[in-house]
Amino acid sequence: MTTYTICVFTENTIGILNKITTILTRRRINIESLTVSETERKGISRFTIVIRHESREAVEKLVRQIRKVIEVLAVFGYLNDDIAYNEIALFKVSTPIGAKPIDIETINKVYKAWVVYWHLTYVIIQKTGTEEEIFQFFDYIKPHEILEFVRSGRVAVSKSPQTLVDYLPEAEWEYYQ
Amino acid sequence: MEFNENQTQTIQVAEPVVSAIKPELINGSHALIQSLIKEGVETIFGYPGGAIMPVYDAIYDYQEEINHILVRHEQGAAHAAEGFARMTGRVGVCLVTSGPGATNLVTGIADAIIDSTPMVCVVGQVAAHLLGTDAFQETDVIGITIPITKWNYQITRADEVPEIIAKAFYIAKSGRPGPVLIDITKNAQQELMSKSFSYKKCENLISYRPRLSPKQEQVEAAAKLINEAKRPFLFFGHGVQIANAENELLKFLEKTDIPAASTLLGLSSISCDHPNYVGWLGMHGNYGTNVLTNQCDVIIAVGMRFDDRVTGDLSRYAKQARVVHIEIDPSEIDKIVKAEAPVVGDARIALEMLLPLIKENNHEAWKAEFKKYDKIEDEKITQPELAPTTEKIKMAEVIRTLSNKTKGEAVIVADVGQHQMMTARYYQFKKPNSFITSGGLGTMGYALPAAFGAKVGAPDREVVAMIGDGCFQMTIQELGTIAQSGLPVKIIILNNNFLGMVRQWQQLFHQKRYSFVELQNPDFITIGKGFGIDGHTCGAREDLNASLDKMLASDKPYLLEVLVEKEENVFPMVPTGACVADIRLE
């Protein structure tokens, strides 16, 4: 299984998420993570969809099907090496009085994580990074009781100097431009 | 569907007398009809109901400009619009109410998307303030139709109407055609536009830009492959008809002398008399076309998508062939069969661009190979089918006799099943744009309403619906629509008292375990007469000629039931999972 990040640029109107996910559902492709936000251009949304698939060819076909949605401006499929990407996670960690205190210095300096909220009996720590980095921190902080843990979808930007560059596959994109 | 009085009481009704306020302002319903008129729509297939009543009220004022045809079931509206669109190349239009009105369209919409048929379905919806409240006849029709429309949109304000209708028609018709659904809330139908109505046709969209002219380098690469080929084989599909590329295809074949085979939906695009025409492809296609698919060196696929009914087992399909794929939808390239030379664009333009680049050629020897297989097929299948010794009439003789009587120039609308495959095999199409059938979806019940829609679109052509007894009972109520219109649609029921194709499969692959395929049928002729449609039953071979003559001579709709052999099979056949080269003759 290879991880693919699919970036979809669409008009920002009602129902586009539904129009995209139905294409994945029909092909029995599970969404590992999903992030949607408006881009630097007003009225244009960017979907970042992470999937795992064993067939690059199937992902290429998926990308072309997503491109067929009328409101979709462009679709790019990326391998992890092609992009700078990150996620954000929040940990609500129990710090009851009398328990072993959390090591703020290690959290900050080793794990590059930050306490964003202090409470008498717990703290909320924000950790930004890749999935692996977040889970390394998860393992580190686990001995303190984790009351809640939430991880965002991936956000990703292509490493290419061009703003809209395709990786999957090279040739077909030209039809769309 | 049923009109519920209670519903309107909850709706804010717009001022009824529009002209008294601001003479130039019209409501959303009038804007909708005027938009349709601006798009050149002359015919609407529809069925009224609660959530679309304001539009129906508006249509009342435009009966001079627009011919509204009242179907008997919304599925009939969808298939009639499809038949109209397939016949004319123009966008078919349906108008129905919310909830069940909309969901009854679903089969037709799914049929239209898979067979690339341009259609705009305007569907009523509860008022915007009721959306999501489970209001009477509220259904999430946008959600339901996302996977089966090329585009869909919900209009909630009258002001949106002209722009959205323009967009709907542009999307439905351009590129690879398909169905568009517009859901319009009742308040949008009733309220006045805030500005005076003006209409501008949509000619492009930022996010949707179908490529019509292929890239020159793609055309050159394709030409090179074609010119190098020793045993080239051209497949043409529905895309040729959609692009009106029949003449360009003929020029191409005449210059290159390449043998050409049709897909099911490509049938009639070139005359079956043409010296380069070698038959049709796929599960029940011809012997030679299937076998030689695995012996050609270059396939030139024009406007077709390598449906699994064409390819059979993909792992053994044309592995030796290099493929040129001319196709307007980029997602079809490499979807099923890898194309060495893809040409993305309109089939007509692509063939036009190819023409000067390809060499004149002669493929007599290669074409003769098809003839060898034809001879075997003719002896083993075609001749026995056409001159049977059975007591009962066989489907093939009905179709071939009809073909001869109509000189191969009628429009044939076939339903789905054995009679469909027999029609494709034995009707000898001479004129382009003459075969309409549900290909991709295989929708039983398609033919009766689609034939009616085709006749509306081409009243001067003889339109004959070829229907099985099972299919006929799925949309039988559209006899009422046909009778009311008075249009002389000719209907042939090939009655074998079986769901024949399923029975054939049960015979061949399920040890003759005939599981729920035998039908106890009503008296179709009496039913037809009840609707006011004349007809008769033909049960004897010696009556067949006279029966067909009588049907064809009628200037009114006519229903001819032919009692055919109960258990006949369609051959040749590439069974599911088999390779095209292993096509069975018995």
Automatic annotation (TrEMBL), chain A:
Pathway: Amino-acid biosynthesis; L-isoleucine biosynthesis; L-isoleucine from 2-oxobutanoate: step 1/4; Amino-acid biosynthesis; L-valine biosynthesis; L-valine from pyruvate: step 1/4
Molecular function in Gene Ontology: acetolactate synthase activity
InterPro entries per the UniProt record, alphabetical: Acetalactate_synth_ssu, Acetolactate_synth/TF_NikR_C, Acetolactate_synth_ssu_C, ACT-like_dom_sf, ACT_dom, AHAS_ACT, AHAS_small-like_ACT
Pfam families: ACT_AHAS_ss, ALS_ss_C
CDD domains: ACT_AHAS
EC number, UniProt record: 2.2.1.6
PROSITE patterns (alphabetical): ACT (PS51671)
UniProt keyword terms in alphabetical order: Amino-acid biosynthesis, Branched-chain amino acid biosynthesis, Transferase
Matches recorded under SUPFAM superfamilies: ACT-like (SSF55021)
Transmembrane stretches, start-end: none
Subunit structure: Dimer of large and small chains.
Protein family membership: Belongs to the acetolactate synthase small subunit family.
Full protein name: Acetolactate synthase small subunit
Annotated organism of origin: Dyadobacter arcticus
Automatic annotation (TrEMBL), chain B:
InterPro entries the UniProt entry points to: Acetolactate_synth_lsu, AHAS_TPP, DHS-like_NAD/FAD-binding_dom, THDP-binding, Thiamin_PyroP_enz_cen_dom, Thiamin_PyroP_enz_TPP-bd_dom, TPP-bd_CS, TPP_enz
UniProt GO molecular function: acetolactate synthase activity
Entry's family note: Belongs to the TPP enzyme family.
Source organism per UniProt: Dyadobacter arcticus
Enzyme nomenclature, EC number: 2.2.1.6
Pathway per the UniProt entry: Amino-acid biosynthesis; L-valine biosynthesis; L-valine from pyruvate: step 1/4; Amino-acid biosynthesis; L-isoleucine biosynthesis; L-isoleucine from 2-oxobutanoate: step 1/4
Domain Thiamine pyrophosphate enzyme central per the UniProt entry, residue ranges: 219-354
Pfam family, any one: TPP_enzyme_N
Cofactor descriptive note: Binds 1 thiamine pyrophosphate per subunit. Binds 1 Mg(2+) ion per subunit.
Recorded catalytic activity of this chain's protein: 2 pyruvate + H(+) = (2S)-2-acetolactate + CO2
Protein name stated in the entry: Acetolactate synthase
Cofactor: thiamine diphosphate; Mg(2+)
